[in-house]
Design brief:
Two copies of one chain form a homodimer. Chain A has helices at about 5-20, 30-35, 40-50, 75-85, 100-105, 120-135, 140-150, 150-170; strands at about 1-5, 55-60, 65-70, 90. With about 180 residues, chain A is mainly alpha-helical. The longest helix of chain A is centred in the C-terminal third of the chain and has 20 residues, at about 150-170. Chains A and B meet through strand 1, helix 1, strand 4, helix 6 and helix 7 of A and strand 1, helix 1, strand 4, helix 6 and helix 7 of B. The structure holds a DNA duplex (39 and 39 nucleotides).
DNA sequence: GTAATAGTACTCGGATAGTAAGTGTCCGAGTTAACCGGG
DNA sequence: CCCGGTTAACTCGGACACTTACTATCCGAGTACTATTAC
């Protein structure tokens, strides 16, 4: 139905959140997921995919969490999409042309089917066009666009939310429980 | 995995075949399918979809068959793709932005989420680019490209194959059986 | 005071369901044209 | 000679099974930091 599924959408929003989070806060996968009510376990898996692609770097352990592995200006939407859905192709040529009945009986499909199928070629051109478009958009641009729309109050409260999560994480095992 | 699946590939090749078939031969869905060893029943379904989209016109009955409903010069690859996979989108926005925890407790997501999501906008731009590319390519161009690669002999034999199919269809119930 | 231990909150990776869409098949119904036999 | 019935070969449309990939969840294992405890 759609080439890029929920994975790409989740990943993109998570990265936007990560780029907007307070500097050095290193939110955990749970933080990032719950902030936008995404399935936590699923986001966890996405994070490891993003890490493999070199977009984020994680730190393990009790104070662990995620942070961008490169400046947001350099991270393109194409890179994000390919990180979590590397197999996404506009079209997969099954080489129908070579199945023609003309070939089967006597002479094999040699010269006539040489090179790339015309239809496949057109599809590849279209795919290249869409990728070119996606590679133009960077995470930084997207964050700027979102920030321009949102209120200052929203930003402040979001930052506070993340700081609260991090703080809560730390104090939770100095004092065992809290009201 | 791929936005455009086998349906689009089959449809495209069938239309190429149809455009290349002898004038007035009106091949049946079976003819078109067997010519390239495609699943017959499936091609039949595709043909009705292509008809609904106005790309081909069918004639029922014993001498029935299919023919292009418009000049091949006017039929774009985009039209073909959309005829059989109209739901194909590059990206389906689930409006994740509106699920943010910041909204749930007191104030609803009003102004900040107004307009289209930044990520969605970028995806739409990419989709538009690929569609633009596909709408540039016409069936006539594709047929020309294929014809340029194939031998004259291949063409002649293909035409003969179709004429044989049509002829066989007619004589098969003047003389009941044939050797 | 320093070192070993326990506990906490993460990440990591694989195994496993559930679900939706594409792919492919089958069957009955309707349509057109040719042929065949009766008037 | 003409006309209605029969048959053949299509199209049309819906119903159904199969496969695959995405989405989502769960669990055991590893890791880093902190606090506690023992020496």
């Amino acid at each position: 139905m759609a080439l890029y599924g929920a994975s790409v959408e989740y990943a993109a929003h998570v990265l936007v959140t990560l780029a907007s989070a307070p500097a050095g806060s290193a939110p955990s996968a749970s933080d990032l997921a719950e902030y936008q009510k995404l399935p936590v376990a699923y986001v966890r898996k996405l994070m490891t995919q993003l890490e493999k692609a070199g977009l984020v770097s994680g730190r393990e352990g009790i104070r662990g969490g995620w942070s961008l592995a490169m400046p947001a200006e350099e991270m393109t939407l194409l890179a994000i999409a390919e990180a979590v859905e590397s197999q996404a192709r506009l079209f997969l040529c099954r080489n129908v042309r070579a199945r023609c009945v003309m070939w089967s009986d006597d002479n094999p499909p040699s010269a006539a089917v040489a090179g790339i199928c015309e239809i496949h070629a057109a599809m590849l051109a279209a795919e290249a066009a869409s990728r070119r478009e996606l590679s133009k958009r960077t995470l930084a641009e997207i964050v700027r666009g979102i920030r321009a729309k949102s209120s200052r109050d929203f930003e402040v409260r979001s930052q506070a939310w993340f700081m609260d999560r991090v703080g809560r994480r730390r104090q939770s095992h100095s004092s065992q429980e809290q009201p």
